[in-house]
Design a protein that fits this description.
By secondary structure, this protein is mostly beta strands. The chain is built from no helices and eleven strands.
Length: about 120
C-alpha cells in the first residue's frame, strides 16, 4: 500500500554533488523508517543511509561526512544529499521504507532505483 517515487540520479564528475529524493504515498502511516541502499555491478547491496521517524540516522562508513540523509514529514519525502562524490559511489540507488531499514533487514517497500554515475 506504499509507493515510492525517486528522482535526482544522474551523471556527475568526481567531487560533485547530487541530491536524491524519494516521495512516499499510500499507507504512509505504516512507515517507521526510510533509507537508501545501493548496488554496483558485481557487488553486494549495501545500506547507504537510513533515518527513523524519530530522526535517528545511520550511515555506511564509506559515506560518513559526505552524505546527509534528511526528511520532510509534511511531504513524506526523504532526501539524500551526496557531496564530494567519488567514482566508487557509482551504483543504482534504491529508496526503501518500512518498519525497519537496516543493514540486515530492509523495509517492505522499494523504489524503482535510480542510477548514479560518478566519472573521474
Amino acid at each position: 500500500q506504499v509507493q515510492l517515487v525517486e528522482s535526482g540520479g544522474g551523471l556527475v564528475q568526481a567531487g560533485g554533488s547530487l541530491r536524491l529524493s524519494c516521495a512516499a504515498s499510500g499507507s504512509t502511516f505504516s512507515i517507521r523508517a526510510m533509507g537508501w541502499y545501493r548496488q554496483a555491478p558485481g557487488k553486494q547491496r549495501e545500506l547507504v543511509a537510513a533515518i527513523t521517524n524519530g530522526g535517528r540516522t545511520n550511515y555506511a562508513d564509506s559515506v560518513k561526512g559526505r552524505f546527509t540523509i534528511s526528511r520532510d514529514n509534511a511531504k513524506n519525502t526523504v532526501y539524500l544529499q551526496m557531496n564530494s562524490l567519488k567514482p566508487e559511489d557509482t551504483a543504482v540507488y534504491y529508496c526503501n521504507a518500512g518498519a525497519l531499514v537496516r543493514v540486515e533487514a530492509a523495509g517492505d517497500y522499494w523504489g524503482q532505483g535510480t542510477q548514479v554515475t560518478v566519472s573521474s
